[in-house]
């Protein structure tokens, strides 16, 4: 298991779930934290990698040996993209022998989605 300490997205200092984007203006610190996540997701390769890992479902994991062939990029480049996703607090990994296995951190995508969701007002249409 990785020794890196990761911030739990969507929680304030007391461990409570934070309000969504439309609930109140972001403070500078929270905006900086979220900007790291969105910057990591702003690259098409990283977005595809996250999708490949997340599509394994809750608790699912993917070996880097399955991720690398899906791209016309070198293994070090793929590793760099995965490192940025880890640093953004979206995924984690574990080395097992020669290979590294990746998984989405539990609840992180749900908390990010909840942050982006705006409350529907009564009578509002989509």
Oligomer: single chain
Distance N to C terminus: 43 Å
Proportion of strand residues: 5-15%
Structural shape: elongated
Return the structural class.
alpha+beta
Order of helices and strands: HHEHHEEH
Q: In order across it, which strands form the biggest sheet?
A: 1-3-2
The percent of residues in helical segments reads 40-55%
Give the strand tally.
Answer: 3
**Low-confidence parts lasting 5 or more residues at pLDDT below 50?**
1-17
Counting DSSP H or I runs of 4 or more residues, the number of helices is 5
Largest sheet: 3 strands, antiparallel
Provide the residue-averaged pLDDT. Answer: 82
Rg is 16 Å
Describe, in plain words, how this protein is organized in 3D.
It is built from five helices and three strands. It has a three-stranded antiparallel β-sheet. The protein starts with 27 loop residues before the first helix and ends in a 10-residue tail after the last helix. It is elongated, with a radius of gyration of 16 Å. Helix 2 (44-54) packs across helix 4. The chain is an alpha+beta fold.
């Amino acid at each position: 298991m990785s020794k890196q300490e990761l911030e739990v997205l969507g929680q304030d200092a007391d461990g409570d779930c934070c309000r969504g984007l439309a609930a109140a203006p972001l403070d500078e610190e929270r905006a900086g934290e979220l900007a790291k996540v969105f910057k990591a997701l702003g690259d098409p390769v990283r977005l595809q990698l996250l999708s490949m890992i997340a599509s394994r479902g809750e608790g699912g994991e993917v070996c880097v040996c399955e991720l690398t062939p899906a791209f016309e990029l070198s293994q070090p480049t793929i590793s760099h993209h995965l490192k940025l996703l880890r640093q953004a607090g979206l995924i984690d990994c574990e080395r097992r022998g020669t290979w590294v296995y990746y998984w989405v951190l539990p609840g992180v995508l749900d908390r990010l989605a909840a942050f982006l969701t705006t409350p529907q007002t009564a009578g509002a249409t989509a």
